[in-house]
Amino acid sequence: MHTLLISDLHLDASRPGITGLFERWMASDEVRTADALYILGDLVEAWIGDDDDAELPARIASATRAVSDAGVPVYFIAGNRDFLLGPTFARRAGLTLLEDGTIHSVQGRPTLLMHGDTLCTDDVAYQAVRQQVRQPAWAAQVLAMSLDARRAFAAKAREDSRAHTGSTMESIMDVNASAVAEAMRKAGVTRLIHGHTHRPAIHRFELDGQPAERVVLGDWYEQGSVLRISPEDIELRGLPVA
Ligand code: MN
Questions:
Q1: Does domain 3-239 correspond to CATH entry 1.20.120.1810?
Q2: Burial of 37 by CB count in 10 Å (0-12 exposed, 13-18 middle, 19+ buried)?
Q3: Ligand 1 mean position, distance from CA 84 (Å)
Q4: What is the CA(209)–ligand 1 centre distance, in A?
């Protein structure tokens, strides 16, 4: 009895080692015997549309499809890198799309699941961009471009993101404590799991007099990062590449 959660793999053709690690892990007994697998966003470095004919989306689809065919539900919440991932790819990949901020019972405990970027409310510039690009009209406009034009557009967006991250204070790019408390209160939960900040940790604190937990998933840049929850235990661990 265990549920697995991952996020922020940032899979990209330029880092084949991590793609291989993802594929091996997806084929492992740990995944194939899980009650469910949750991917909480930024599975890829950049998603340019479900019609992308590159090798990487095809490899991802076959890895996730095999897990869902084995009877393990694979849930996906979009991150800021892959919010253009839609129902067409989800069907092909055996993914069940969930809204950011879904509450699921994870091993019997009501759990708020988010990518995490909406909690970074101190980063006003980022939130403004987010609001703009999450408009349906923006997505329609981008998806109407040719694949080549979208690839160039995604490369530019990554550079802009890197420039912003490089010039913004660390504390501003972390979650805001009031935003966390508000989201958990609204959801009526004492456990929140999210990614995005690449600061893996299990934070224990008090929320309105109750013991509460915020679990932050790790990124997959140098190695993998997996959260495993069983009825009696919660474990956040690294996954070595070799
Ligand atoms: Mn993110």
A1: no
A2: buried
A3: 13
A4: 31
